[in-house]
# Entry
Amino acid sequence: MPFFFNARNYRSTFSGLLVVLLCTIFLITGCQAPSDNSGVIRLTLWQGVNPPPNRDVLQKLVDKFNKTHPDIQVESLYVGQQDQQMPKILAAVVGNAPPDLLWYNPTIGGQLVELNALIPLDEYLNKSPVKAEIDPTLFESMEYKQKIWSVPFATNNVGVFYRPSLFKAAGVQVPNTWEEFRQVAKKLTRDTNNDGQIDQHGMVLPLGKGEFTVFTWLPFMWSGAGDLINGKSQVAGAVNLANNKGAISALELWRNLITDGSAVLSGPERGYETDALVAGKVAMQLTGPWTLGEFQAKGIDFGVFPIPVGQRPATSIGGENLFLFKTAPEREKAAFKFAEYALSEEFQTELALGTGYLPINIKSRQNPKYLEFAQKQPAVKIFLDQAKYGRSRPIFPGYNRVSENIGRAVESVLLGKTSPTEALKQSQQRLDLIFN
# Structure
């Protein structure tokens, strides 16, 4: 999950590094490579696709675009994971040398808009037939201040992975509600070798205040009928954590799993690691389709079920979007051609089959090759089915501060330091000092 810098603080904190960063950007990545004498427009795409086999899939798709568009050549550049990318991105924007295209988490959108770095895509999309093929639930992640600033590259959402063999041994069924979830977690917490020590817990919960913790906790807040913001405001100052009944009930559920002895905590900021689930030390874990390949490769039994329901079904929508930077008209037009290609049924189907990402193109989800793939892997259908209940994280500037304070509240509650109500109250007070 990405780490975000505050744009205003960045100018002072990173001013001393700006020259070094810009030199690195120019020498290593060659931003905005100019058209050559043949008239070919050469574009740069910055991305942090991981693991490496997924980058290989992307490169093959980029190569295919380049072969079919001899007048446009795209160079796909791996520039590190998203926390490593951020100082490079901001240095490039400040130095007026951005890439043409950027693969990144949607939550960066508002910050880049406020820096006047992006081109709006409404006019391009309105003229493109591919707009009607985009999953409607993803538009929330594309829009800020009533304009579209990015297009989805790939998507995912959060579900509960579990070990069916451990469920069978404990005599339990897949839970549908929060109460069933809590009871099932208790029954899955067992002393399996009768030595008087618990050696299998029902659940592992993410410890830490980082984005992964927030990303996997938000579905419970939404399912508990809570919202970060009342109405459609797109400013960080409108976030409401104090007296947020959905947020309080979601924290209470996670705290109860700990106090029941049914859940253990991950390593600090390591909630995405699945070693305990693979080893059978825990029976359930919050994660997403990006782990399907890992579980298949290890040959373990596994299944997936949707986030249990409090008041309504919900999940967090994840994945990355493509952003197009302000450059020159002919470059921007060429960059959108690549973005349009990335949105296409052909691209999305091949990307999904090769990486496990969920296609953002609704035609791709009905493609015979993808349907065959989904039939062989039932977990894919779970993620596709619950996508209609998905919610996107806000993209307004300052989301990083909001996320940090939500994470602090979650961490404090899971460590038993404060109650859910008090933890959220304290986080709200900090946010009020920052934004109001």
The longest helix spans residues 52-68.
